[in-house]
Amino acid sequence: MNIALGALIILLLLLPALFFRIGITFWRFSDKTSQAASTFSGELARRNFINILSKLNFSETLFFFSIVPLVQHLISVCVIDWWGREIDFRLLLNIFSSQKDIISDNSLFDKELTSFLWYILWETFFGFLAGLVVTQCFIWFPSLNFMLIGENMYLRLFTGLLLEPSKRAQVDLVLVDVVSETKEVTVIYSGILEKFDTVPDKNELAYITLSGTRRRDLRKNSQVIELANSGVKTTTYENDSGDMIIIPGKYFTIPGSKIANVNVTYIDIQTTTDPNGAPVQVLVPIN
pLDDT for 239-268, tens place per residue? Predict the structure, then answer.
């Protein structure tokens, strides 16, 4: 019985790490209609941080989510000692070592167990709050993502870190033009950036997801010219090299292997009034 009780206590001691992870992912289920959640930098920073954590291998995950309860318990022990209280470590040690006389005094054990459960409850609550605070720090300071993912140009490009902080605060959405090449055709996909992911340890995109996507075929109005007696063929394109085709569906994902180049335009949505006094939203590029 004591072995099972010791295992249960170990699991309870690890609960702060579990709720720390829940606190991190809690922002994913937050109210996306609120101003704080709908900002460009905050939304992308939150998504990127959660995606980065999901890419950690087993040893990295074990280290990351083991150091959290360790540090938290250490701080809590110092706070308890500062308040003039103490923890009965001898009782915990006896439980872990499966001492037979550990439950000889039920009244004392019940008192210590109740105190321990209250301690775990508060630790779990503070672990959840710590997850919220850490995620918020990555929202306030998106450059912290580089501590986990390293220098990545696409991360800088799509999160607006190449802009000055004052301009980055104005960004409401990102328009992306993606050049995609295959053996048969070269097309441009244009849409609003919704999500992206990078290849670990490489300066490459794993995929990019757009909304309101449109496609233009660059070869629609192309012209192939063969020089006389040379066998050399050249392909030219007209300035208007194809009609825009609206792609059905809300989201469109392009795998990184099909991406040849990207063009990014940062947009500030401003509200003005028309001659009739009605509010009108205007998309203003940020240079």
Answer: 555 677 888 889 999 998 889 889 999 988
Sequence-distant (6+) residues with CB within 8 A of 99 are 2
Q: What is the token pair recorded at 131?
A: 């997850």
Q: How far apart are CA 250 and CA 73, in angstroms?
A: 46
Q: Which of 102, 75, 101, 98 is nearest to 88 (CA)?
A: 102
C-alpha triplet 199, 202, 206: angle, nearest 5°: 25
pLDDT tens digits for 22-61?
A: 777 776 555 444 444 445 556 666 666 666 666 666 666 6
Q: Which residues contact 144 (CB under 8 A, 6 or more apart)?
A: 137, 138
Do residues 27 and 132 touch, judged by C-beta distance below 8 A?
yes
Q: What's 169-218 look like in SS3? A: CCCCEEEEEEEEECCCCEEEEEEEEEEEEECCCCCCEEEEEEEEEEEEEC
Helical ranges in the chain per DSSP H: 2-13, 15-25, 35-38, 40-54, 58-82, 89-96, 106-140, 146-149, 153-158, 165-168
pTM of the model: 0.60
Token couple for 278: 């009605």
Quick check: 44 and 172 in contact, CB under 8 A?
no
